[in-house]
Amino acid sequence: MKEPPVIDIISPHGMCAGVHxxxxxxxxxxxxxxxxxYCLHELVHNExxxxxxxxxxxxxxxxxxxxxxxxxxxxxAHGVSPQIRKAAAERKLKVIDTTCxxxxxxxxxxxxxxxxxxxxxxxxxxxxxxxxxxxxxxESVGGKAYCGFSSAIENASLPAGSKIxxxxxxxxxxxKVAAEIEALGKKFKVKNAARVCGATDERQxxxxxxxxxxxxxxxxxxLGSRTSANSKRLAEVAAASGLKTxxxxxxxxxxxxxxxxxxxxxxxxxxxxxxxxxxxxxxRLRHIPEHVAIIMDGNGRWATSRGKPRGEGHKAxxxxxxxxxxxCGKKGVKYLTVYAFSTENWKRPKSEVTGLMNLFAAMxxxxxxxxxxNRVRFRMIGRRGDLSKSLLRVIEALELKTQEFxxxxxxxxxxxxxxxxxxxxxxxxxxxxxxxxxxxxxYLYAGDIPDPDLVIRTxxxxxxxxxxxxxxxxxxxxxxxxxxxxxxxxxxxxxxASYAGRNRRxxxx
Length: 509
Ligand code: IPE
Ligand code: IPE
Ligand code: MG
Hints:
Blueprint: E1 6-9, H1 17-32, E2 38-40, H2 47-55, E3 59-61, E4 72-75, H3 82-90, E5 94-97, H4 101-115, E6 120-123, H5 129-140, E7 145-147, H6 150-154, E8 163-168, H7 174-185, E9 189-192, H8 199-212, E10 218-223, H9 229-240, E11 244-248, H10 251-255, E12 264-269, H11 275-285, E13 291-295, H12 299-304, H13 310-331, E14 335-342, H14 350-373, E15 376-381, H15 389-401, E16 407-415, H16 417-431, H17 437-440, E17 454-457, E18 476-479, H18 489-500
Parallel strand pairs: 1-12, 2-3, 2-4, 4-5, 6-7, 6-8, 8-9, 10-11, 10-12, 13-14, 13-17, 14-16, 15-16, 17-18
Bound molecules: 3-methylbut-3-enyl trihydrogen diphosphate (IPE) (2 copies) and magnesium ion.
């Protein structure tokens, strides 16, 4: 097998705060709305984001005149001029404004100076939509905007020695802005109000820093759309630093890149690239399984060997589980399913069963804040009717509170693979539907999530004990003698490395 490159994450990378907020707001509004929303220009320059918005019914337009009267318009993060706001009001458009607060601040500063009769210079590209919005702001209060850089401004009709105010396009390089202001200061009395957003700069600087210490054989991969100027700029910075540079706008593109000869790969992304795409790319580059399932076995033996009651083993096992969930987050595993209590485990002494049920309730209550903080969706699979009302209440409340989150933690309680299949068959019969392998999935306890890629069993037992019988048909298995309370990150890494080296033929050759 070819050695894949070691993957480094270059930080900071990815969406700036303004883009992030704009996308989140547009997505939330799109999900709520029953009618199509009209977005003036691309919300951000990223195809994945635009496709996601289109799938939610967004229609992209270049002017408000293209939007039917009374509909809803979304203003992009770059901001719009008061003239466009007025045109939207005249068409009785409802407005969703995702203007970056940073850009909005520049608008208000430029307006204030104009009202105080100070000429305003905007450092930046006059064709850029953000600059056009600021120009409109100045003109709306009777002013004239001076766009461009010092060389152009010096030749403008502004008398030498006069007072001017300077603002800047927020994505400009801070050093360039400082140099420009210095140059302007030689001819004018400059009132400097230029505040750049450091996000683009910081991302480029991080690539330069990475390149400085890179050994031969190191490459850089930039994730972003080809329409994104700042993503392309990142690739230019990497290439200028002498590193072999790759670019991918989609997962398909990524799959087709030939990294042969590259020993280490630094990965970064542009300010409009969604983090979801970034983390999925990292997961694939590192061959991390998307779904890991674990048969957490050996608690009892762990406790007995220490002369402790079995319950102590379960408590120690619960602590391990908390750690494993964190490691999954860190490594990019999207789904973790754990076997906590089987349909066969009801055979155990009543005191052990009660102890386990109490432990589940206590752990879930204790972990609630972490789930929310780490954005982990909790789900239970198994026969809910077997559980006490109080435990079920805790479970269902937590499921409800975390249902929006993408990463998932699935706990199997009173779970049996055969029970699940029987329950699914009965649901299908009650609907009177014949099933296919694919349609059968929707009757499973969590049929919407992908099958486990890797199933780990601790404590040396090499059997499934009735776990995920349907779902694990093509899973890779990893068995270790380590008892569950002793399961370490090193052992987890071993399991993942073993998985990464396997050839999953799935019946092919
Ligand atoms: C796994 O540990 C946890 C549960 C089944 C709840 P065990 O309790 O099966 O531990 P051993 O196999 O007896 O050591
Ligand atoms: C499987 O472990 C079930 C869980 C880990 C919850 P068991 O300890 O119950 O399995 P067997 O009895 O050894 O097969
Ligand atoms: Mg056991």
